[in-house]
């Protein structure tokens, strides 16, 4: 099966600081990537996506960077807020299916 | 209105039983999915289904079977439940041509 891994299973940041969550993917054929946020007791929620023909995409307070050479994704959250505390997943799509990583648990310290 | 709903939210049952989890989406989406999330939060796709095609993850035991009475519903039936089936099961859906999946709230299954 596919493998999408994360470098750090947990991350703690001070409120107001920037957060960076990293993800390594395995399939060089993947042409689409999504970051999801999962709050406690809820299902994953879409944050931002990026296609393989892009290196960077920005949303509201979030930026996704894609480095295809090393098969690496990152999610940057600016001015992290307590409401950002959650588990973050990257997912890759090499075809018809999405494959998710284990997740990084982000804790924001007030 | 809830976009993707699942019932029940919690399910506790004994080994060997057969159970079903229901999923409904009111988004008019074409494709629905079932995922299993283990205690370490790892999300693994089990099935994807639209009115034309069922794609089964080859690692899913055949005790698990999806059943779709109509386009808005994809239920998950599990036979002969085992301890290792304990997990949170998520249903998701998406529209054709759009990669974004909408997830349900999850069903926490505990097999004792």
User: Spans of chain B of 5+ residues with little confidence (pLDDT < 50)?
Assistant: none
**Assembly state of the chains shown:** heterodimer
Main sheet: strands, sense, barrel of chain A: 6 strands, mixed
Q: Whole-number radius of gyration of chain B? A: 13 Å
Distance between the termini of chain A: 39 Å
Poorly predicted ranges of chain A = none
> What structural class results from the helix and strand content of chain A?
mainly beta
Major sheet of chain B, described briefly? 7 strands, mixed
Based on helices, strands and strand pairing, what is the structural class of chain B? mainly beta
Mass-distribution shape of chain A: globular
Average of per-residue pLDDT values of chain A: 90
Please name the defining characteristics of this protein.
heterodimer, A: 110 residues, mainly beta, six-stranded mixed sheet, five-stranded antiparallel sheet, 11 strands, 0% helix, globular, B: 112 residues, seven-stranded mixed sheet, four-stranded antiparallel sheet
Summarize the structure.
By secondary structure, chain A is an all-beta fold.
Structure description:
The complex is a heterodimer of chains A (110) and B (112). Chain A is 0% helix and 54% strand. Chain A has no helices and eleven strands. In chain A, the strands form two sheets. In chain A, strands 2, 4, 5, 9, 10 and 11 form a six-stranded mixed beta sheet that branches. By secondary structure, chain B is mainly beta. In chain B, 0% of the residues lie in helices and 54% in strands. In chain B, the strands form two sheets. In chain B, strands 2, 4, 5, 6, 9, 10 and 11 form a seven-stranded mixed beta sheet that branches. In chain B, a hairpin with a 2-residue loop joins strand 7 and strand 8 (73-78). Chain B is globular, with a radius of gyration of 13 Å. The relative contact order of chain B is 0.34. Chain A binds chain B through residues 1, 32, 34, 38, 41-46, 49, 87, 89, 93, 96-100, 102-103, 105, and chain B through 4, 35, 40-45, 48, 55, 57, 59, 90, 92, 99-106.
């Amino acid at each position: 099966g596919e493998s999408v891994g994360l470098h750090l299973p947990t991350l703690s940041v001070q409120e107001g600081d920037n957060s960076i969550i990293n993800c390594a993917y395995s399939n060089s054929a993947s042409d689409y990537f999504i970051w999801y946020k999962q709050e406690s007791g809820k299902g994953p929620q879409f944050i931002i996506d990026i296609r393989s023909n892009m290196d960077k995409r920005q949303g509201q307070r979030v930026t996704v960077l894609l480095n295809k050479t090393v098969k690496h994704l990152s999610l940057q959250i600016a001015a992290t807020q307590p409401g950002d505390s959650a588990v973050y997943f990257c997912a890759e799509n090499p075809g018809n299916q999405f494959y998710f990583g284990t997740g990084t648990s982000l804790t924001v310290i007030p | 209105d809830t976009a993707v709903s699942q019932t029940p939210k919690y399910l506790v049952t004994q080994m060997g039983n057969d159970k079903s989890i229901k999923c409904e989406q009111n988004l008019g989406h074409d494709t629905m999915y079932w995922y299993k999330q283990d205690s370490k939060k790892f999300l693994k796709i089990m099935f994807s289904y639209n009115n034309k095609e069922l794609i089964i993850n080859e690692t899913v035991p055949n005790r698990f079977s999806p059943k779709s009475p109509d386009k808005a519903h994809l239920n998950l039936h599990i036979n002969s439940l085992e301890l290792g089936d304990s997990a949170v099961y998520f249903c998701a859906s998406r529209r054709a041509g759009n990669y974004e999946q909408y997830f349900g709230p999850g069903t926490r299954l505990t097999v004792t």
